[in-house]
Amino acid sequence: MPTRVLKRAPRSPAIEASLVRALGNHMLDALGLERAELSVLLTDDAKIHELNREHLGEDRPTDVLAFPLDALDQEARVGERLLGDVVISLPTAARQAKGRKRPLIEEVRFLLAHGLLHLVGYDHATAKEKREMSAMTRRLVNAAPIAPATRRKKRSPGR
Fold it and tell me: How many CB atoms lie within 10 A of CB 145?
């Protein structure tokens, strides 16, 4: 089952849902979850703020949220897993990418890896967990290559 991507981010930076889908599929493969389904919502600060407030009690926007769906015994029952939803704020990702001097797609890839790891049980509440999650995040980022042509949009002559 694939990565499904929905973009609902009015007036947000442009990013191709098909590219995010491919990154998610590479990450699922790297985790041995080829038959799992991952849902990704690319949204704006207002929507992620609302979700953060409703579900986590945090009254502020954030960069990424993860909402796990999978029951632990579901995989044994049906051979497939519905992992859950990763929600990424494109405006926040764009600000972070600018601050880190890297393309937006690289920031989205990082946030996708981070959110996916939360869906499969990783956390960063302790120093040990943070080290493990950071190492796994690097592994997933490296498993999901970005084609050179997608890193920067080419400009038309005369622009």
Answer: 12
CA atoms of 95 and 108, how far apart (whole Å): 11
* Contacting residues for 89 by C-beta, under 8 A, at least 6 apart: 9, 43, 44, 45, 47, 48, 61, 62, 63, 64
Residue in the structure block whose two tokens are 């002559």: 157
The predicted model scores a pTM of: 0.87
**79 pLDDT tier (thresholds 50, 70, 90):** low
Angle at alpha carbon of residue 31, lines to 26 and 37, rounded to 5°: 70
- Given a cut of 50, is residue 159 above it in pLDDT? no
Residue 84 and residue 117 in contact, taking contact as beta carbons nearer than 8 Å: no
Rounded to whole angstroms, the Cα distance separating 9 from 12 reads 5
Q: Which has the closest alpha carbon to 114: 70, 67, 64, 151?
A: 64
For helices 90-100 and 104-119, what crossing angle results, to 10°? Answer: 120
Count of other CB atoms within 10 angstroms of residue 121: 9
Check if CATH label 3.40.390.30 holds for domain 3-151.
yes
